[in-house]
Amino acid sequence: MKSSTTTLVHTRADLAAALDAADGEIAVVMTMGALHEGHRQLMRVARERSAFVVVTVFVNPLQFGPNEDYEKYPRTLDDDLVACRAEGVDLVFAPGRDDVYPHGAPSITMHPGELGEILEGASRPGHFSGMLTVVEKLLLLTRADVAYFGEKDFQQLALIRRMARDLELPVEIVGVPTVREKDGLALSSRNRYLSPEERLAALALSRALREGAAHRDADAVLAAAHKILAEEPGVRVDYLALTGADLGPAPQEGPARLLVAAKVGTTRLIDNVSLTLQRGA
């Protein structure tokens, strides 16, 4: 059942007061704003399950590299509130930097370990340390019983699950399937940076994943995906990787993940798909 009102708070004190009045399981959906249908799907899943739904809106400076788009990252809080109200969110926590990091940039942060050094971690040093640090803070601040994250950022999801397990955090981490446009493009706040021509080129990412996932032999999976990407001159591939379902080495048989990252124009996009490998297929 949808909430009739959505409360907006900016400070830790107001957040705590609102949570004191919450009754039942608390679910959190963490965002950096610029909400799209993918975020709204996370809210819907949370709303269906939990008594009290919190959405956080915070552009976290710790997870942006020196040449990344922190300053130009879209900030659309008014529109974000409209989306949250439409999805029956109970509480939106939109803190400032000083509310999240009251003592300045933290000298102690989360270390993502070996899983954080591959794929996105290799391309964006420091990104996952900053991401895990703010996620852990927000899990504690929102008193979440369950947290929902999209599978589009699959390495992020895997690391958050690992952090919750290794640190024995009393929270359930739930992944929600990627939401896509009708033409297959994975929804992302960064899609708004694409020109019409770049958006057409970006479709090669999801097309490559589909073609790869249609095969069952590991070599055939990668060959099919590479072929699609090589045929699109507007896409500069960062990585195309076939891994295990937990981002470990790809098995000869069983569940696996195919992941891609590429730049289209100046916009860096990521996507992934699950598949099942079969020996000798």
Structure description:
The chain has helices spanning 12-20, 37-49, 77-86, 97-100, 120-123, 127-142, 154-166, 196-213, 218-230, and strands at 7-9, 26-31, 52-57, 91-93, 146-150, 172-176, 235-244, 254-264, 267-277. By secondary structure, the chain is an alpha/beta fold. It folds into two domains: 7-176, HUPs (Rossmann fold, 3-Layer(aba) Sandwich), CATH 3.40.50; 189-277, Pantoate--beta-alanine Ligase, Chain: A,domain 2 (2-Layer Sandwich). The longest helix is centred in the C-terminal third of the chain and has 18 residues, at 196-213. It is globular and about 60 Å long. The N and C termini lie far apart (47 Å).
Could you provide a short overview of the structure?
The N and C termini lie far apart (47 Å). The protein is α/β, with parallel strands linked by helices and 281 residues long. It has helices at residues 12-20, 37-49, 77-86, 97-100, 120-123, 127-142, 154-166, 196-213, 218-230; strands at residues 7-9, 26-31, 52-57, 91-93, 146-150, 172-176, 235-244, 254-264, 267-277.
